[in-house]
Amino acid sequence: MRADTGLILKVVTFAAEKHRNQRRKDPDASPYINHPIALANALLHEGGVTDVVVLCAALLHDTLEDTQTTPEELAHHFGAEVQGIVMEVTDNKKLKKRKRKELQMKHAPMLSTRAKLVKLADKICNLRDVASNPPPRWSLRRRIEYFDWAKTVVDGMRGVHPRLEALFDATYALRPAARRWKRHSKPAVRKPRGGRRGSQ
Q1: DSSP element (H, E) containing 23
Q2: What's the rounded Cα separation, in Å, for the pair 156 and 154?
Q3: CA neighbor of 23 nearest in space, from 194, 191, 192, 196
Q4: Strand pairing of 23-24 and 196-197?
Q5: Quick check: helix, strand or coil at residue 28?
Q6: Is 23 in contact with 195 (CB distance < 8 Å)?
Q7: How far apart are CA 104 and CA 89, in angstroms?
Q8: Which alpha helices (H) appear in 111-176, and where do they start and end?
Q9: Annotated catalytic sites, by residue?
Q10: In angstroms, what CA-CA distances link 57 with 9, 141, 186, 195?
Q11: Phi and psi of 13, rounded to 5°?
């Protein structure tokens, strides 16, 4: 157990350093490292997942996608198993966001069991954030669409962990209530914000 604790601390330190200049999109612009820590907490304390490889991958899950971290770094510091899971859940940022979301839905059923656990926790934590503290620029429609897209991704992973899936379903119940949008209303213009990382 001591060895596992030491490894987790090493991973948290590594992830915090990699994400040090990044913030979430919530109104408080909270430190980005809060998000991967929330994933690990959800897996361990709510889902009962004790696999240290999964917990490490959860803490590192955005390092390849959102920082300058390389797969080789992850393998060197944390081993091939952790590296492999992180690579499975990493989107290709060279693709447009719409395409990345399509690929998440398509690839979700094909993920390894461990990667599915990380992906489930990610969707749980992201929905919680969107429900309780949404980005100021996110319209009601965008929040609803994000909830529904996340559910489609999770539905492709059903059967991997009933407890986490129940947590997701309870979180999905927080989906904002839809209202009738004006047919001719103009969509809000979203300007890019430097240094911010989103809930997707």
Answers
A1: strand 23-24
A2: 5
A3: 196
A4: parallel
A5: coil
A6: yes
A7: 9
A8: 113-132, 140-155, 162-172
A9: 65-66
A10: 13, 32, 41, 23
A11: -60, -45
Instruction: At 185, list the tokens.
Output: 């209303």
124 within 8 A of 37, measured Cβ to Cβ? no
The model's pLDDT over 107-131, given as tens digits with 9 standing for 90+, comes to: 999 999 999 999 999 999 999 999 9
- Residue 27 CA from chain centroid, whole number: 18
The 10s digit of each residue's pLDDT in 30-87 is 999 999 999 999 999 999 999 999 999 999 999 999 999 999 999 999 999 999 999 9
The pTM of this model reads 0.88
Q: Are 11 and 58 in contact (CB under 8 A)?
A: no
Written as six digits, the tokens of 146 are: 């994000």
2-176 classified as CATH 1.10.3210.10: yes
Cα end-to-end distance, the chain, whole Å: 33
Q: What residue type is assigned to position 103 of the chain? A: L
